[in-house]
Amino acid sequence: MSTNSPNRSLLPREENIKARTLKLLATPSNYELEPDGKILIKSLGTYLKGRGNVGVTVLDSEGELVYKFNSIKECASFFNVRSVTTISQKLDNGKTFEFKGKKLVFKRNLCKIAWGKLMVSFFRHSLLQGSC
């Protein structure tokens, strides 16, 4: 008998995995999506850092959509700014950015922020809000 073969009694049953998955999905999320697009970790009272690609929506002074980007890096490249930090700061502080004579405002694309465990709660939130 090989010692490398898995013990059948230790393997999780498919029914148990399904039940545990449904229970997990039914519980409230530890994450909360803020109106500005930041993700709050409720239990820690801090914001999630390094959350992957964040979509960027660029609006004019009347709130009309002017540009839409799949990532902060793509946005920074388009506006020819040296660092993604410039765009990140605009997303965080809401200050305008002048480009070709127009004052632009940068917003996080909330539908783009969806990955890992957060995907389910954000997808559910987006459906309820009708934002995607």
Descriptive notes:
The protein is of the alpha+beta class and 132 residues long. The protein has a domain at 55-109. Helix content is 32%, strand content 22%. It contains four helices and seven strands; from the N terminus they run H-E-E-E-E-E-H-H-E-E-H. The protein has helices spanning 14-26, 72-78, 84-93, 118-129; strands at 31-33, 39-41, 46-47, 55-59, 65-69, 97-99, 102-109. The strands form two sheets. It has a four-stranded antiparallel beta sheet with strand order 5-4-7-6. A hairpin with a 4-residue loop joins strand 2 (39-41) and strand 3. The model is unreliable at 114-132 (pLDDT under 50).
> Which structural category do the helix and sheet elements fall into?
alpha+beta
Question: Could you describe the largest sheet, including whether it forms a barrel?
Answer: 4 strands, antiparallel
Strand arrangement within the widest β-sheet reads 5-4-7-6
The number of distinct β-strands equals: 7
Distance from N terminus to C terminus (CA atoms, Å) equals: 55 Å
Give the topology string: H per helix, E per strand: HEEEEEHHEEH
Outline: elongated
Q: C-alpha Rg, in Å?
A: 21 Å
Please state the average pLDDT score: 75
Strand content: 15-25%
Low-confidence stretches: 114-132
